[in-house]
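Could someone model zinc ion with this protein?
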Amino acid sequence: MPPLLRMSKSLNFKVEAQSGEARAGVLTTRRGQIETPVFMPVGTAGTVKGIRFEALESELDAQIILGNTYHLWLRPGIDVIRSAGGLHRFISWDRALLTDSGGFQVWSLGALRKISEEGTEFRSHVDGSLRFLSPEVSMEVQAALGSDIVMVFDECAPGEASHEETERSMNLTARWSKRSKEAFDRLQAEGADTGRLEAEGLSGTQALFGIIQGAGHLDLRRISLEQTVNIGFDGYAVGGLSVGEEKSVMFEVIEDIAPRMPKDAPRYLMGVGTPEDLVEAVARGVDMFDCVLPTRNGRTGQAFTSRGKLNIKNAQFIKDTRPLDESCTCSVCRRHSRAYLRHLYITGEMLASILLTHHNLAFFLDTMRGVRQSIRSGDFPKFQREFTERLDANGE
Ligand SMILES: [Zn+2]
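Reply:
Sure, complex below.
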């Protein structure tokens, strides 16, 4: 099969190998190349919690990280970030950055928000002030942040939403997506993007991804896909999954929608998931992922390993001299025992969170490295089978 090539003004995406629906490729942004499928560590407030940028770059080799528009907008605010020269300069990260639109964070505030056609009014979780987020405001904030990949401002229906409610929400997302694109184009033309960077063969501008909604209703998902593709974006995301629906529903949606998404654009599954979720979604055709699990769970004493999850608090590890994961080659597993990590955790040492976060991110990124290699070598089905068997065999 000839490689699929996409030349757009802001990024290139090339699928180089395929195994069933699983794809391995290269996404070229103005800040470098990203091998896909890729896991993107989440840097909520301009930091991937609990890990230094040096480790993200050198040992873990994360090629792209996320920033959260909602959090950065409220604190430190776009004036601070703009005066620093954009988010890359503010946090000192030269590799690619993707920012979400703030839509999901505002959505997760629940009762604190009020949605209208124009946008969403909500109370800041920081100081209780009344704020207003709309497609136009989100695009303006993301231009000030200067991220390399921008997400449209969408609305998310709850996992168990009725057909009627989901349809209303999905149509609102379509209208907001169109407004996002118009505002985005205007801001690019005005030079509002602080992250502009000349790169060979690329325009140097930000890229914009659309988001497909529709909860667990496949008919609506297909309509949302069509609405989004008709507007036209550099990449396409599946949103509104992993928000309380059954896992089987999530995979049903991915299996139906991913293969129908444009083949020459990156496909991004937002906010998912565990290592096994990532491998399952890759098998259904997804290229990009982000999730707070490796960092958040690292701070609460949970390690993801090739043999399942392990809770370092458990008494069984008091004298356990083995590493967290005997088949992991990360610097934490090469140096420290479960007994020591448990001791750090129990005594409330900050190093416990740091080391567990490091290992968890290493495990997620290594898993994706294995996924990419196996797709390229034609061994993905074997990789998937062995990965799942190992997880199932032991567990915690
Ligand atoms: Zn490790």
